[in-house]
Design goal:
By secondary structure, the protein is an alpha+beta fold. The chain contains 12 helices and 24 strands. It has an 8-stranded mixed sheet. A hairpin with a 5-residue loop joins strand 7 and strand 8. Helix 1 crosses helix 4, helix 2 packs across helix 3 and helix 6 packs parallel to helix 7. About 20% of the residues have low confidence.
Amino acid sequence: MLPHDSPFPNRALAALDRLAEGLLAPGFWAANGLLDLRPTTAERRRRRRRRCGRCRGCTGALLAGGALVAVLLLSLPVTALGLLLWLPLQAARRPFRYRYTAGTAAAEPWDLRQPRTFTFLSANVCLLPSGLAKFSNLGDTARRASAIARQLAPRPPPAPGARAGLLEPRRDSTGYGGTLRTPALARAGAVQEATPAGTPTATPAGTSTVTLAGTPAATPAGTSTVTPAGTPTATPAGTPTVTPVGTPTVTPAGTSTVTLVGTPTVTPAGTPAGTSTVTPAGPEAAEPVLSERFPADTDFVCLQEVFDGAAASRVCGQLAGAFPHVLWDVGERGLRGGRPVLLGSGLLLASRFPPLAARYRPFPNGRGEDALAAKGLLVAQVLLGSARGRRVVGYIGCTHLQAPAADAATREEQLSLSLRWLQLFREEQEQRGDLVAFDVLCGDLNFDNCSRGDELNQRHQLFQLYQDPCRRGAGLDAPWAIGTLLNYLRIYEEPVSTPEKMRRTLSQPGGRQRYLAGPILASGEPDPLAPGPWRGRRVDYIVYRQHRGARTEVAGVSVITQLATRSDHLPVALRLRVAPDQP
């Protein structure tokens, strides 16, 4: 039988797909090579330093360009034949692939009588084919993919069960420094006896199950239900160092009051999350929450722009040693709605905990060049443990919205679709008695909370249902929040050339002004009236939602510089502390 990691349900279709890709390979290689002739700023600098380097570079590019054009023209008939074979085959392709790696150490069982933290990482890694990556001043996708994969896969911790990581918050009587504490919700029953994560439980009637042996069963399009065998886990690693800033407090009597040292005070007073009123309470300057390393205790990794097939395979293979469960190669290609979709969604989700079900849904309203990619929403339900016959589950979504700045209305619709799909997925998969530990959405939303051009998206209902720890209200971020989109033309300059240098540089107002992308207008042009020094465009998000039956508070937030020179985005990490309500 085929393993579940195959993109097709049988060997014949998989063989035809390989044949089609073989026919497409010469034309793709030539087209990618032509685009790859465009030098990055680092390559231009190296040429200027060499004697006659600029002349040699131009001569080499002309000769290579001529040869590649000849190959492209000669391969057109074969490319057309391959495309005619490839397009209809995609209708039978699975919407994602699931890789389960056996043999890793068992996951730590969660004793539900004790609180537990879960760490989420989201990163746009820009792993497009090298020629397309050049438009973001990146290239050499194969090398970058290998380096990113090594950095994402953590090393074993110094002691079993260690959860070093994201930040070491200083605690006092009011909460965690540099984070936002959330009020407790109503109690909804007790959970006392815990069983290890990964214990299979009965699935709802009519829901098909796919065993890890790779036997697929009939499921709704885009849906996979998995019954794991054993309890694999990851061995964490890395040691980020982040010093939190500020000290939050909460008054739970229906009114949250969040106070960060040296920052404004936010008093929602019954206002939905994300639409709080703000009253100044001192200077707003605060040190940004930056880290040089990925959290050692990362439980879930959500990646965007993993478009290149070889890069995706390399990243997936490397992550499998630390995250036993990986959903990858996500997206529905081929002819969709009468238009060709040539790239997948670029989404990848790696988890230390076994998925019970997963679903991918494509956005139907992609525009321009974004319509060539199968952008959409990937959501999974993961099993964290069980107690007295009650499953303890979590929901995690990963998405990447429309990119052009002028397409705010398109993003608005995609956000609304994502909220609807998340709710439908929960209703389909949740069983009576389930304890929901977390409900998290990660991704590159392609709008920020500081630009006048993004005002429409800043007021979306998403921020009334989900909480963004870095946000104080529409158009206002926490003083310690920092942008995640780099000025792509400067990513190779010496002050941001290593994780350590980038952290030091972005800790300074002048460094943020120079190396982070600034506020924009609706047209995408820089906003000349933006007040400075600005803290950059924060387009990468991890937001979470409260659920009855569990108390959730933020235990750490970080923006990470480890991908210096390897991406034009800064990864973000969020650690949630979850404690089931006691009777």
